[in-house]
Amino acid sequence: MLSRTADHLYWMARYIERAENMARVLDVTYRMSLVANSAYDETARWKPPVQIADDIEAFEKNYSGYTAANVIHFMALDERNPSSIVSALGAARENARAVRVAMSSEMWETVNALWLELRQRIRQGLREADICEFCDWVKSRSHLFRGVTFGTMLRDDSYKFVRLGSFVERADNTARLLDAKYQLLLPVVDAQEAQVDYYEWSSLLRSVSAFEAYQKVFRDTIEPWKVAELLVIRDDMPRSLHACYDELAPILEQLCRQRGMECLRLAGENHARLHYGRMADIFSMGLHEFLQDFILRNNALGAEIQRAFLNGPE
User: Fold this and answer.
1) CB of 214 within 8 A of CB of 227?
2) CA–CA separation, 59 and 305 (whole Å)
3) Helices (H), the chain
4) Helix 287-309 and helix 261-275: axis angle, to 10°?
5) Which stretches in the chain have pLDDT values below 70?
6) What angle is formed at CA 27 by the lines to CA 179 and CA 33, rounded to 5 degrees?
7) Which of 39, 160, 209, 256 is exposed most, by the fewest CB atoms within 10 A?
8) pLDDT of residue 1
9) What is the pLDDT of residue 36?
């Protein structure tokens, strides 16, 4: 396979996953902003989505404050923001158009229809009250793309690079989301705030489609350390860090038979830390420190994949 083709497929998948992740972050932030809680002002509510996307500098350069309207526009519709939903889906469509022959016709039709419908929605305008419906639409179209990919694409190297892009991006977002929200939603000791705290933690779980999974696994009230365990080391939770690397490691074992052994080493090292790690050890070193270190390691893996297989610099 040409590196150029692999590059387009890999980034097409990453951008679609990124758009879905941004929709999840906006959705949970908006829902949590509707819960009455005097402990958090508007800035405290709406700054974390920008932190998760690592776009603080770009946001503060173009917007006057962390209001709901500003953050929603920046994260969803601002074409100057490369992490916004519209930018990510536009980049995904351009990458898909460049390699139409490397994917099934159904995949291309799904991506193209997604982009055309998005443009129509933008022309109609996006009200703040419609943000939940818009985010649900983005998530459903991302699910449709993955379903079409799984159901129609030949299991060759093209398929492997699509999966690779999806899980590298997903692992990065889950770590950023948990890190940002855990710092905001530390366990409360005031009994009067306990009910509000429950709804906020449940919203966080719903943002990664993990609310029902939490209930099945723990059969208990929502507790922050159990949420962290579910999203970090549980390998049966699809969006957990461990689950992402359960998918990444075997894909790289197949791709790294002749080159890219550093990719395999990095993925194996990250996978081993999640597979054999214990939450007690993670909390003893600090969850924030662990997640920041994971994000750096995951970014290093992405950079090495780019260098070894794609159109990246040596």
Assistant:
1) yes
2) 29
3) 3-33, 42-52, 56-62, 68-72, 85-98, 105-124, 131-152, 157-184, 194-207, 211-218, 224-232, 241-255, 261-275, 279-285, 287-309
4) 160
5) 1, 36-40, 184-197, 258, 260, 312-314
6) 80
7) 39
8) 67
9) 66
Say how far apart CA 178 and CA 187 lie, in whole Å: 14
Question: How far apart are alpha carbons 95 and 101 in whole angstroms?
Answer: 12
Q: Is the pTM for the entire model greater than 0.85?
A: yes
Q: Judge whether 211 and 237 are in contact, CB under 8 Å.
A: no
Q: Shortest CA distance to 252 belongs to which of 148, 145, 153, 167?
A: 167
Please name the residue that has the structure tokens 């699910």.
Answer: 143
pLDDT at residue 314 in the model: 45
CA distance 156 to 159: 5
- Kindly list the domain boundaries of the chain, sorted by start residue: 1-153, 154-314
Place of tokens 């989301």: 177
Residue type (1 letter), 117 = E
Instruction: Show the tokens assigned to 89.
Output: 């889906």
d(CA 55, CA 146): 27
The answer to whether the CB of 244 falls within 8 A of the CB of 170 is yes
Q: Torsion angle of alpha carbons 22, 184, 50, 287, nearest 10°?
A: -80
The rounded distance, in Å, linking the Cα atoms of 48 and 50 is 5
158, 124 in Cβ contact below 8 A? no
Residue found under tokens 């679609």:
16
